[in-house]
Protein: Adenine DNA glycosylase
Organism: Pycnonotus jocosus
Amino acid sequence: PAPPPARHLFSDPAEVEALRGNLLAWYDRCKRDLPWRALAATEPDADRRGYAVWVSEIMLQQTQVATVIDYYNRWMQKWPTLQALAQASLEEVNELWAGLGYYSRGKRLQEAARKVVSELAGRMPRTAQDLQKLLPGVGRYTAGAIASISYGQATGVVDGNVIRVLCRLRCIGADSSSPAVIDRLWDMANVLVDSTRPGDFNQALMELGATVCVPKAPLCGECPVKQHCQAWRRKLFGKPHPVPDVEDCCVGDCPLCPPATEPWDSNLGVTNFPRKAAKKPPRAMRMATCVLERRGCHGAPEYLIVQRPSSGLLAGLWEFPSLPLAQDLQEEKEREELAGQLQAWMGRPVAAKGLQFIGKVIHIFSHIHQTYVVYSLHLDGDVTLDPALSPSRWVTEDEFHASAVSTAMKKV
């Protein structure tokens, strides 16, 4: 494909310098007070500073700031250093992470902490290249964020917020998730980053996307860099059809322009950008889940939970005994299959008619639309599942909520 024309790039040094100055001045005035920012700004020890930023960046992946703050504070209170995290058990990590979602993040974070302690003498890598190369679970974005914020490396970052801001600043209308566009956005981020305050600049760019240049109803009037934004200028000075738009490339095969089949929609304004390929709908799955209940030694009800495999979805978390179901299975057949599975687990007969249907719970994972068909079964006496299948234990309601269980199981 033809190279993108200059209008898509930041090729004017004076404009780049003005954009940096405006954005940093706005950030100094308007940045949110967040615990990881306070730690990064005040922690004199470089490794602790890098660890504090690293934890926040992993937690913030696919998760909103408001949700992360409490988890982050509890995490840093429990494991204030890499060394403390390296000594923790995976069960402890899963318990603290429970409810935050994308559970493999916590597991990889602990694995990487152990690697830093055991193989790198407790010293965090200092550059984005080494962070990405040496630490499991640290990708290009996280490496750039840690290196710029903690160690002052002048390297850019590209996350969802930055993609949105850059696509609007330069009217990039090609699929923003495509490798070609992502590579170009990284080039732009590296051109823009301020060499004297790289961490602050990257946080300012992300903050702008999170609070002003939001996906819907962006606050363009409050934007500190709107005079550099081609999408805003196009909205402001757009010409009615059929007068050719001066912002159009007219190059024919520009890799960054919107496809000809998706022209500018004046009703959308700046929210014409960014554009993404249509998401695949999440696949539908059904699961029969049985809440096995007994009377505990102190009279309070207890419930049986089992541990999921150490890999795959919700790896290592605890759940009520569950069984995947075919989509078109009738309720009677569901009961029979669940009863058969429980019988195999417990080594004692289980009557399908004894399973009480409670209801259905729907939980949406990023790629799965999961329906839990929930049954209940009261038991007399102790029951131990076959240890060759999976670990199991009886818990009270309070113990259940304190265990490493998913949000979906809490709904159940």
